[in-house]
Structures are given as C-alpha cells and as structure tokens.
Amino acid sequence: MTISQKSRSLTVISAPFSGGQGKPGVDDGPQHLLDMGLVEQIGRLDWTPKFAGHLQFPAVKNDTNIGHVKNPRYVSQSTKNIYEAVKKASTSSDFTLTIGGDHSIAIGTVAGVQAAHPDAIVLWIDAHADLNTPAASSSGNLHGCPVAFLLGADEPLANAASKEEADLFGWVPHCLDDSQLGYIGLRDVDAFEKQYIREHKIAAFSMHHVDKYGIASVVEQAINKLDPEHKRPIHLSFDVDAIDPVYAPSTGTPVRGGLTWREACYLCEAVAETGRLVAMDLVECNPHLEDAKAARETIAMGLSLVRCALGETLL
Ligand SMILES: [Mn+2]
C-alpha cells in the first residue's frame, strides 16, 4: 500500500499517561511537545494535522496492587480509552501520531492501529523489550509489559481477589503475531524476555547489531524480515530511551550505549522512505527529569524523530 500524496490527513492523539511506571512528569511530555511546535512543524510537511486534544484518564479509586502489579485498574481502563481513540483515528485518517506518556499506552495504540490495519508490522524502538508478562516483571510497572499483552503471552493476574480482577487485561486483543514484531535498539533485556525472543524467533536487533552492521543495514534487515514483499503498513513505536541519554536524557529508564541523534533520525527517515508508515508513537519523554536544558533537548529530539518519520529530509 502507498499513502496518497494529495490528502495525507494526520491525527495527533495526546495520551498524557504516567500510570505504567512510577516517575511523575512523563504525563507532561505531550504538552511540552505541543508547546515546542509539534503541530505547526507537522503542518509544514506534506500533512494536514488535526490535534484531537488530550485524552482524559479519570483516576481509579482503591487501585491497590494485584500481586506486585501497580495501578492495574488505572492502566487497564486508560489504555482501553487510548485503544478506542487510536482505532477511530486510524480508521478515519492516513496517519495516527500518539504522543505519550509512558510506553504502557502502546497497549492501546498497537491494538487500535491493528484494528484498522491488521497486517501492519510493528517496529518497536527501545532500550527495553517491554515484553515481560506481569508475572515475569520484577518491578510490577506495566510500561514493561505492553508487548506481552499484545502477543497474548500474559496469563490472568496472579493473586487477584476475583476472576474479574484477574482478567483486567482480558479486553486487549491478541492482535500481534510473533512475526509482526521487530525490535531495534535493545540493550537492557530481562532473562524472561531474552528467552521469549529466542524461543519465538522474534526479529530483534540490539545495539550490538547496530554497532556491527550500522543502522541503515539494521533497518533494512528488520523490514525485510517482517515484510519481505514490502507491502505491509508500518507502525513505529518509538521509546526515546532507545536513544543514548547523551541526546535524550529526560526519560524514566535511561540506559547508556544507545542510538546517536543521527542514528535515531536515520531510522525514522528510512521508515518514512518506504511510504508505508501509518502510525507512530512517541513515548517516555519526561520533561520533569534532569534539568530544563536536558528536558528541552529531549523534547527537541522527539520533535526531530516525528519530522523525520513524516518525510522531512536534510536536502
Ligand atoms: Mn519502552
């Protein structure tokens, strides 16, 4: 499929959600991206952006841990709202850009994009695999679990008070096949996740592969593996912690040894060149972490990624 060059409509969905992890401030990422010109910058490219406003995430009373899983009801309810919004946007516009928020929002974005484009491949750009099941998660933070839900790797929540509670995430469609998912940028992967990636032969390119082959070859290899015929729509789920903290310091779980500024931009440019990108998530920009300069640089990095993914070129 190719997107018409004439009427490229783009919906910006803001998902200011921080309940998938413990550091406040990531819910302020979207406003900072908007304040630094996100919508205007998109409008200067070949897109007609529509900002759909900030999604609201009503608090959940008595959202006690289930086992060690934190904010389980809040995350379930909020990501379901995101799912509905993204499904609607992806059905009605050419491109859906969702700005977070922590990476738990991808439970909703991936499921929503898959509802409109069931054959879309997902490129998950991240230092982490976000593939822990709630049971395998050591932290109990659900931003480390979205991929497990989408693949259907999770089981009912352990130590729940009722069957209903154990099934809190039962609404998430198991919309991804192992062969639809590719990682780039990994460098902090838990034992359960490593085993799952190996056993299920998931396309995973760590920073080792970026060092070995270069980013251009890695992007090409990832797309070739997931879609050898180069026909399928692409959903890019970009966690800024994939980037080295030198360039994107204001993020909740930074890991040294990440993508450079240009490697990250190149990745987005190369995906844009396919003409098949239909959705992007930009997550884990937390302007409350580090100082104001670091926050500005991180937000500027995020804006560059979006522009590159939407076709901005250097020449
Ligand atoms: Mn992530």
From TrEMBL:
Pathway terms, separated by semicolons: Nitrogen metabolism; urea cycle; L-ornithine and urea from L-arginine: step 1/1
Catalytic activity field: L-arginine + H2O = urea + L-ornithine
Superkingdom: Eukaryota
Gene3D superfamilies recorded: Ureohydrolase domain
Binding positions for Mn(2+) 1 per the UniProt entry: H103, H128, D130, D239, D241
Gene Ontology CC terms, in alphabetical order: cytosol; nucleus
GO molecular function: arginase activity; manganese ion binding
EC code(s) of this entry: 3.5.3.1
One of the GO biological process terms: urea cycle
Alphabetical keyword list: Arginine metabolism, Hydrolase, Manganese, Metal-binding
PROSITE patterns: ARGINASE_1, ARGINASE_2
Binding residue positions for Mn(2+) 2: D126
Cofactor binding note: Binds 2 manganese ions per subunit.
Names of required cofactors: Mn(2+)
Class of this enzyme: hydrolase
Keyword Manganese part of the UniProt annotation: yes
Family, similarity comment: Belongs to the arginase family.
PANTHER family the UniProt entry points to: ARGINASE
Full protein name: Arginase
The organism's taxonomic lineage, starting at the top: Eukaryota, Fungi, Dikarya, Ascomycota, Saccharomycotina
The encoding gene: CAR1
